[in-house]
Each structure stands twice: as structure tokens, then as C-alpha cells.
Amino acid sequence: MKDLIRLLKPYRAAFGMALVALILAAVFNSALTGLITSLMDNVLTDSATQVQSQADRLFGYKEKLQGLQNWLNEFGVPLEAIREARTDALINPIPWAVMAIVVFCCQALFNYIGTYTMGKVGVTVVVDLRQAMIDKVMTMSMRFFKEYSTGDILTRINTDVLRIQQAISVKFGEMIKEAANVVVFLFLAFFINWKLSLTLFVLVPMVGLPVAVFSRKIRKYSRKSQSFLSALTSHLKEVLVGMQIVKGYQKESFESTKLAQTNSLFFKYALRELRITAVTTPVMGLIGMVVVVSFVCYGSLVVQNGTMSQGDFLFYILVIYQLYQPIKRMARANSDIQQAVGVLPRIAEVMEWDNEIREPEHPQSMPGHPQVENLAFRKVRFRYGDQPDEPWVLDGIDLEVGHGEVVALVGASGSGKSTLVKLLPRFYDISDGALEINGLDIRRMPKAELRGLFGLVSQDTVLFDDTVHNNIAYGLKDASREDVIDAAKKANAHEFIGQLADGYDTTIGESGNQLSGGQRQRLSIARAILKDAPVLILDEATSALDTQAEREVQQALDTLMKSKTTLVIAHRLSTIRKADTILVLDKGRIVERGDHEALMKNHGVYRRLIQLQEEGIHAL
Length: 620
Ligand SMILES: Nc1ncnc2c1ncn2[C@@H]1O[C@H](COP(=O)(O)OP(=O)(O)OP(=O)(O)O)[C@@H](O)[C@H]1O
Known about the structure:
Blueprint: H1 2-7, H2 12-42, H3 47-60, H4 62-74, H5 79-85, H6 94-139, H7 142-147, H8 150-192, H9 194-241, H10 243-248, H11 252-304, H12 310-351, E1 374-382, E2 394-402, E3 406-411, H13 417-422, E4 432-437, E5 440-441, H14 447-451, E6 454-457, H15 468-472, H16 481-490, H17 494-498, H18 517-531, E7 535-539, H19 547-561, E8 565-569, H20 573-578, E9 581-586, E10 589-594, H21 596-601, H22 605-614
Parallel strand pairs: 3-8, 3-9, 6-7, 7-8
Antiparallel strand pairs: 1-2, 1-4, 4-5, 9-10
The structure holds adenosine-5'-triphosphate.
Adenosine-5'-triphosphate (ATP) binds near residues 393 and 415.
């Protein structure tokens, strides 16, 4: 609860205003109830009965008001004369009507101000919280995305945050309104009989006990159901993205069954949550009933010994009942608030995640920026986890790459090629050794400057559901249409873009699914050409394109690599042959290095890999 209230801190002025408005609305609401009860006595009656009933009420509380009457008599106020004089007067309903309208308008106005302001605070908290989560997720290291699935992250940012909005916008307001009602009726109860009301105070904590137990359970089940919802979203997203494979392998019912299992686990915990929520109200009702029944027994005693009149006691019971209604509503609102409190740890987990790829405390600009003269791995070791018994994925990598050099990385699957290039833009930090550019350790450079040095072309082309222009100019705000067209021409993409319905303004669908594989690759190459970064990291696609598409992509890549320092994870013999240096990786170590001719003479791993490839077996 404290955490939920902490979220409101920046909006305390608006929240305070909403609270005051809601309390005033509750006060006017009870005044309205009072006015309606006085309708019978003061409006829908004749003058004599009205005065009689007023007088009865006034003089009825003899003990309480005796002092006031004496005091008024002493000052010569003719109470009895007033009583007589008004007996013949006609009833004028206008003052009551005006009063009723004024009170109602005040109640409605404060209700509007309170509800709207509280709702606005809720929406603002949620929008800010969601944005803070999005901003945080954007800065997360790749380790975070390995640990949390996409669906889980999406559920936390969307569904979990929505529960908080509901709690703040609606339920907090309800709580406050009902609390104000409780205060008003408590005051009345004390006014009528303070001794009896004190007894009530002893009994009220009895109500709090089950509320605390239920709250804990609701929080627990709410957390569980949300985590299964996350798993469901995550799995569903995978299935939707991979629908072609699911259909191709006829796995629709298999996936449906798997999804149904998670769905039923969600159902199980959502149902438990619902059961506890549903049981809260009757249990509270029962406790309320026990309280009322105890009062009746006690009342029987006080009426018999003459401490209270029957009428007073009945009125008191009514007040207590009125007191119990808002408490019941508060219990219901509390259930919803507890559900929101239940998801808070899931949000906190994201917000408090420690990003291990840190910005240096005293960043240093790279000497000679943006020219990359030298890129060096010095005894680099790396593993994904930090357990001491985990094997090294890269072990003792020593490598120097000069300006304009092309280095091809080859090796069996899982030998560490992709991992090696991921260390350069600090997607992961090395575990041991040093990684330098122009002699400066990359961990001392500002992250933005470091990442600006690399152009990435990966084998799974990453495109967004946006226009061709925006996909090529991704991240470059100032790129003009001419620049984009120029890059597209160099990437052999201009021609096919011209044939699209809206040319460069065509939206290409989620992940560019309205384009062919070769077209997607050429768009991502155009993007890298436009970025014009000094170092190129290329992950050559293993999937076969037809000869024409392959030739077009290859031409685009050649243009891209011109006069650039390039590290390429190479699968095509043509690329490997052109490389200045070929590094052969095996189980995280560089086992051979040199150019094609030299390595072929070696009769080692490289020669074997090439022979396997020539035999048509995919080995690189
Ligand atoms: N995010 C990760 N978390 C944990 N281990 C990983 C992760 N990514 C890769 N690995 C492991 O690190 C090792 C090297 O993987 P890497 O992707 O660098 O190999 P690769 O040579 O690029 O393989 P391929 O040619 O098949 O892409 C593998 O054993 C792999 O299981």
C-alpha cells in the first residue's frame, strides 16, 4: 500500500484536491439524506403537525437540551409562544426545495471535481509509470531480454499497469468517499450515545482482522494469475509470429493444447482470487450482522433499565446500519486495491533491474573519433552467466583489426562467432581481458559514441511496420529523401521500391512481411549504407536466396563494405575468399588465422570446413 501511495507523491496536490472534494461530496450527500428524511416532517405535512413534530424533537431531547432551553428562556425568548404562533401558519415548501437543490448541486459539483481529478491522477500515474517502464526497458542490457520473454514484458507494461490505474482512478476515490461517510455517521453515533459507541470501537477491529487475511490472499493470487497471463501472452506471441511453421508442421492443436494448459492455470488462480474477493463481502456482512445483533441484545438491557428510550435506540441502530454500509463498500474497494498492490512487485522488478552495461563515470571520447584506426581484443574471455562453473563461450581471444580490413569469422555452429561481434557495441561486457578501439577501452567511451561506430546487418533482418523511407532512415532523423534514395540505389533496392504501391511511402507490414527475403535484406543493407558507420558488423544470411536475389544482395554488400573496416560472420565462400584475414573459431578459441590460400595449405579445421561446404554440407 505504501508503494502504491508513493506512486502518487508527484501528484499530491491534485490528489489532495480530489480528496477534499470527495469528502465534501460525502458531507453534502449526508445532508441530502437528512433533507429527504425531513421531507415528511417539514414539507409533506400540515403546519400543526410540522410544529408538533419539531417541538417534539426539540423538547424530546429534554435532558440534552434543557440547558439550552433554560438559557433561551433566561434571555426572554418566548419558546412556547413561538410554538403556538406557528401552529396556524401555512407550510411554504419553497425554502426546502431551494435548500434541496443547492445541497444537491454542491454534492454533484464536488462529486464531479473529486471523481474527475482522482481519475485524472490515476490515468496520469499510469501513463507516467508506463512511460518510465518503456524508457527503462529501452536502456536494458541484452541480459534482461534473455531473462524476460517479450510477452512477459508486454504484460507488465500493459495489463499490470492498468490494474493500478483502476485502483487509483476509481477505488481510491470510493475508499475516501466511504471513509467520509463513516466519519459522519460515527459522529452521529457518538452524539446519540457515546458509551455504546465506545463499545462499537472495541468491536470494529474484529472487522479489520478478516480484511487483513483476505487482502494477503488476494495479493498472492493476483500475482500468480498475472504471471500465468504473462506466460500465455509470451507463448501466444511466439505462435502468432511463427504461424507459418506451426501450420507447416500441422501443430495447431498441439499449440492450442499447450496454450490451454497455461490458460487453465491462469483460470485456476484468477478463480481463487475471485473466490476470496466474493467471500469478503458476505463475511463482512456476517460480522456486521453479529455486531448489530449484539447491539440489539445490549439495547434490550439499556431500554429496560431506562438509560435510552425505544425511539432513540431504534434511531441509533439505523445510524449503525448506515455506518456499516460504507464499511462494506470500503472492503470491496480494498479488494481491488489489493489486486493492484499484488502486481506492484512485478513492476518494481523491472524498474529496479540493475543494468550491468553501465555508462562510464568519466567518459572519454575515442582518440581520432570517428575514424577507427585500430580495433583490438586482448586476451578476451566471456561467458553469458556469472557462475564460476559455467564454461567460457570465448576464451583468450587476441585480435587486431586495422582500418579498412575485412575479417571473416568462420567456425562450426556454437563456436562463438556471433558472441564475439556482440561484445564490440557492448551488447554484453567482456568477463576478462580488454577490448580497445584506437587504444581506448570501450568501457570508458560514452555508450552512444561507441554504438555510433558500428553498422549492423544481421541475418534476421529487423524491419518495422513503417514506410520504406522510415525503415531505411531508421534512427537518422535528418535523412532527406535524396539520401534515402541514394542509399537504396547503392543497396540495389531502388528498383523494387519503385514498383511498390506507394514507392518509398509504402508501409511494409509487421517485420516487413509484405516483402521477399532478398528485398528485406537489401533494405537492411540500405539502412547500414545510410548510417555510414566506420565499422561494419555483418552476419551473413545462411538461408539460400535464388541466384538472381543472391547476386543483388551480394552486390549491395560489396558496395557497403567498400573502404570500411568489416567483421563478417561468413557463410559464403566468395566472402571468405575476399577477406584479408580469416579467423577459425572452435569452442570459443581462435584455432587458425590467415588468408584463404594459407589456411588451405594447413590441412586443419578450415580446410575441413571448406571441403564439407563444397560437398554441400552446411558447416560454417
Ligand atoms: N544469450 C545467450 N545466453 C547463454 N548462452 C548463449 C547465448 N547466446 C549464445 N549462447 C551460447 O554461446 C555459445 C556460442 O554461441 P554463438 O551464437 O556465439 O555461436 P555461433 O558460432 O555464432 O553459432 P551459429 O553459427 O550457429 O550462429 C553457444 O554454446 C550458445 O549456446
